[in-house]
Amino acid sequence: MTATDAVRLTQLAAGGGCACKVPPGELERVLGDLPTSRAGGDLLVGIDSGDDAAAVRIEGGRAVIATADFFTPVVDDPFTFGRIAATNAMSDVWAMGGEPLVGVNLLAWPRDRVPFELAAEVLRGGAAAFEEAGAHLAGGHSIDDPEPKYGVAVTGLADPQRLLRNDTGRAGLPLTLTKPLGLGVLNNRHKATGEVFPEAVEVMTTLNQAASRAALAAGAETATDITGFGLLGHLLKLVRASGVSAVVDASAVPYVGGAREALAEGFVPGGSRRNLDWVRQHLTSAVGEDELVLLADAQTSGGLLVVGEVPGYPVVGELVPRADALVEVR
Length: 330
Hints:
There is one protein chain. This protein is of the alpha+beta class. The protein is built from 11 helices and 13 strands. The protein has helices at about 5, 25-30, 80-95, 115-135, 185-195, 200-205, 210-215, 230-240, 260-265, 270-280, 290-295; strands at about 45, 55-60, 60-70, 100-110, 135-145, 150-160, 175, 220-225, 245-250, 285, 305, 315-320, 325-330. The strands form 2 sheets. The chain has a 7-stranded mixed beta sheet with strand order 8-11-7-12-9-13-10, sandwiched between helices. It has a 6-stranded mixed beta sheet with strand order 1-2-3-6-4-5. A hairpin with a 3-residue loop joins strand 2 (about 55-60) and strand 3 (about 60-70). Helix 3 (about 80-95) packs parallel to helix 4 (about 115-135) and helix 8 (about 230-240) packs parallel to helix 10. It is globular.
């Protein structure tokens, strides 16, 4: 038995993946009191709308996109964990219409409890994701920590005239989702039982690069990625920032195989329920509670939610003029 076989990384942390994010309501209260920069001048995207990353105009008709993302293990295999975490970090750049240029590793490791050779596998997985994306991964920072955590701080480049933002949505446009949901409940089941779900792993390790490029080619101006706040949470942020409302067609939303079974057996992350609690005051719905939980399910390395139709991906709703309910689920 190897060190990798003997250690289940998901058992070393209380949370897992993007489900361990600070709840959105709490985060907004904290950020609202901070004297941080808001968009203006060369700062194209700041904290105003809670977008996926910061964007700054630089010389040469380009914009720098900067972001960071890290979390506790969402799967037990260290190489796969590294791939997922790095893929997820780069997604913030693709969600804004950019291309990752370089990343630096962020690693926390319980070095007295877990062999450091497993940390090397995590880093190797991150490097593999960056290589696939055609970006560089070099250096970074590491600390000794009771729980393992990994992620990447990513710098990318974009055309400042073609940024995908979350505050530019217009009523009358469709909503396109580029990856299926259900990753949160399946990851929670994996943490509890050790079962491996290959389709979920494939979804989480699929780069959002092609989807981002397709959205830009289709003329999209608005997008966000679906991660820890779930589809409903990220959609709420988008419609609130854009001054519109949204209608979601629940029957059109795709799910990873086994997600409904995992939900029925109670494998729901606490983060998913917190997401739904946060969105509920802005929500009207004609579907049952289970469906809403799945729509609010905390995703790790999920897809893009694009305002506009993107060929090859399902349309799951539309933006409508601002109404009393910011989000309606039918």
